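Lab notebook, bench 4. The sequencing result for the construct came back, and we need a structural model before the next group meeting so we can plan mutations. Quick request posted to the team channel:

Model the 3D structure of this chain.
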Amino acid sequence: MNRHTFSFATVSASFALAAGMWLTPASAKSACAPYEIVVQRLAETYGEAPSLRGTTKSNYTIEVFSSQDFDTWTVTVRADGGQTCLTASGKGRADLDIVLAVES
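Done. Here's the predicted structure in token form:
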């Protein structure tokens, strides 16, 4: 077995990508705005910038924004047209020591 250390950001992005297969910005009960405005507000208010990005099979972009010291983070879902919804946010992080079974 291989031992890997995953950061909170990596794990939360994985969960966000998985959730993105079922969650769409239209169905999310969260704050939504054009992408440029979300980026500007997160930068001005929390000092956050995009740190991880992935695309779902449904062609939604899941993005994790975080402050430089990762004191705060925000997960967003963006549709093709640029409408971006805040889906989760929080403070702090934790590194997880996860053991993965690797088939030979």
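Confidence is low (pLDDT under 50) at residues 1-6, 13-28.
Will bring this to the meeting.
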